[in-house]
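A note on notation is needed here, since sequence and fold are reported together in a single record. The reader may check this reading against the record printed directly beneath this paragraph.
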Amino acid sequence: QSKLASIIWSGKTPILKFAQDGLSVQEHVPGSGFVAISHVWADGMGNPKANSLPLCIVRKLQYLVNGLPKTDSTADTPFWIDTFCVPRSPRELKMKALQRLKEPYEEAGSALVIESYLSRHSGSGVSPFELLARIASCSWSPRLWTFQEGRLPTEPARVWFAFRNRSVDLLHELNVPYSHFPTLASHTVHLGLLFGHKQTQMIGSPGIGFTGNQYFIILEGGPDLGDALAYTKSETDIDEQGS
């Protein structure tokens, strides 16, 4: 805890690694890779009372981030998650960490979305259309807090979604021309929110579409971010660590 506090007070980003001897914290060095984890607190990986999680969950986190493409030769990829990296007390330290809450997602080599509904479903043997539909309908997509976490990573960073048997980089799963689909990694969440709203239509088309499916996305008149955010929500103090 003292090392974590020192890193936060210095205005730096703490990152974590889990090994046999436990969880270690270190200061992120610019240019080195780590994964920023985005999740819904009420989904089981939040703790409003302490900076702790069950050992089985910590092991799972390290396993999932290790499964993503690596940016360096380290065996275990460091990660950032607010449950550990935003202290519950003292209040001054917590507020200091919250003021820098966007930096980990801007600095990370990848962002990994972990959500219970997605983790129950396979990411293999299904069409990109179904992957997009599952992501758009999961509990992570309509949350206001997680909206920025998925939008902040920019190229070459990638936003991954953890399904039961693999993590999916949605934009690389889609076979849609650039003129119909933004290619920046940070647009994944924007499109997820718009999916199903009045600005977005899923329409049939011969020859152009998702791999194996005759569908593609048209954003009529450009995305209306205000309408998309109208569907976001923040339900409880447990759900939002900044409450």
Observations:
- The first helix runs from residue 2 to 9.
- Confidence is low (pLDDT under 50) at residues 176-190, 192-229, 235-243.
- The two ends are 22 Å apart (CA to CA).
